[in-house]
Amino acid sequence: MKNPNWKISRVVAVAAMACLMSIGQVYACNQNDLDRLLENNSCRFCNLRSCNIDDANLFGANLHGATLTNASLTGAELTNAVMTGANLSQADLSNARLRGADLSGANLSSSNLSGADLSGAKLGRATWVDGRKCANWSIGKCEKVR
Question: Per DSSP, what are the bridge partners of residue 126?
């Protein structure tokens, strides 16, 4: 004779597996948006989450409002890029050139900026790597809000 609780046990087991699988969910790069960026040097509000854009020449690119969470932009040329309101949380921007880039209102929380050149970059109202908000007048470095 079957255990009367077998259906409940089975449902609980399936639900537990679904939860465990979603914890380690991996996001793939949206290849269509990445191709659009590389072809046009512009991709406003694009989903570039987890994309590998290492060493790309994105001089003056328009990435306004783009999602670049977990993206790799190591050594990328982003001088004068417009990245206002972009989500760069947990992105790897090590050794990227961001001279004169507009990162106003961007989210840089937990991103890697080691060796990045932020000379003249606009950082007003950006969320810095440590989670603090940059002052409106921040240029080249995140100034403390007074």
Answer: none
Task: Give φ, ψ of 8 to 5 degrees.
Answer: -65, -45
Task: Return the structure tokens found at 35.
Answer: 């191709």
Is the residue at 134 inside a domain? yes
Residue 5 lies in a domain: no
**CATH code of residue 128:** 2.160.20.80
- What secondary structure letter does DSSP report for 26? -
Band (pLDDT 50/70/90 cuts) for residue 59 is very high
Mean pLDDT confidence for 15-37: 69
User: In the numeric block, which tokens belong to residue 2?
Assistant: 């079957």
User: What is d(CA 56, CA 118) in angstroms, rounded to the nearest whole number?
Assistant: 17
pLDDT tens digits, residue range 75-94?
Answer: 999 999 999 999 999 999 99
